[in-house]
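BUG: 3D viewer hangs when loading the predicted structure for this chain

Environment: internal workstation, default settings.
Expected: structure renders.
Actual: progress bar stalls at 90%.

Input used:
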Amino acid sequence: MDMIGGEIGFMAASAGKAFLTLMEPHRLMFLALGCIMGLVLGIIPGIGGLTGTAMLLPFTFNMDPYSAFALLLGLGATTATGDPIPAILFGVPGGAASAATVLDGFPMAKKGEAGRALSAAYMSSLMGGVFGAALMAVSIPILRPVMLFIGSPELLAFSVLGISMVAVLSGNAPLRGITAGCLGVMIAMIGTDPQTGTLRWTFDSLFSGTGCRSHRFCSVSSRCRNSATS
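Structure tokens produced before the viewer hung:
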């Protein structure tokens, strides 16, 4: 308990210091600029928060660390806010997080209920963001010592648990769910290993080196579906 109390006190003091540093006018300006750029990049399909951060990173080399962090923080926080716009209006997800939005939002837009779909998407995003931030602030001091002991065996156990949950949610066809989950794991292994940088199943292709992103398949399938219905 003493360790957890010390972690909470240290994180609270660090958060207060960071908040006061961020409240300076020129850093708030960079934060607002990052929010606007994040919204614009979120609307463009295929450009997510990671790609937008990589695009803006060279512009932060000559900035002080706090202003650069404010710019990138505003960009990363609002990219997911712009993702539902192309997903609902055009049937093309702006990122992987909005792939499921296409299933319900695009049919509602074709029925003239685009405003209702956007309202539902933004309200759920707001509630999820606030709840997630509060939960993370409470759980990080408690889970931080536990995270240091998580290794490869524990990550393998999490993966097996995830595939098992897919089988459970498959209803009367658990074997089909396990097969689909294993196929998804195999597809996710294509690209660069995040820890060692080793290229896996790329077959000497530069395009495969970035991996197979879900929004690419959703974009292709949605375009094929739209062309078939038109």
